[in-house]
Amino acid sequence: MIKSFIEKLRALPEAQRKMIFLMVMTIVAMIMIFTLAQSTKNNVTQVQNSIRSIDFPEIPAPNFGGVSDSIYNESTMDISEEIFLKMDGEGF
């Protein structure tokens, strides 16, 4: 059966053989892309579930030289001036 099919393909003109080859390769490529997309989707879902299950500790925000939002006042000075004044005695 397969042997007779191959013989029929060999008997066809080269242009038709190329067309059949391209169609078969296109179908195979589409199947591979679909399989890859499904696999990627499943892997991303597994990674998302793994990340959600991790209990990350709370990381406190650093205090930059004692400068905080509470002492920043737009009417008196710029924050860069305030940082400079705080750091002036300690050096850079």
Could you walk me through the main structural features you see in this protein, from its secondary elements to its overall organization?
With 92 residues, the chain is mostly helical. 65% of the residues lie in helices and 0% in strands. The chain is built from three helices and no strands. It has helices at residues 2-11, 14-53, 79-88. It is elongated, with a radius of gyration of 34 Å. The model has no long low-confidence stretch (mean pLDDT 80).
Task: Walk me through the topology.
Layout: H1 2-11, H2 14-53, H3 79-88
Summary, kept brief:
The chain has 92 residues and is an all-alpha fold. The protein has helices at residues 2-11, 14-53, 79-88.
Number of helices: 3
Radius of gyration (Å)? 34 Å
N to C succession of SSEs:
HHH
Q: Would you tell me the structural class of the helices and strands?
A: mainly alpha
C-alpha termini separation: 85 Å
Mean pLDDT, rounded to whole units? Answer: 80
Helix content: 55-70%
What portion of the residues fall into strands of 2 or more residues?
under 5%
Model regions low in confidence, pLDDT < 50 over at least 5 residues: none
Strand count: 0
Question: What's the shape?
Answer: elongated
Biggest sheet statistics: none
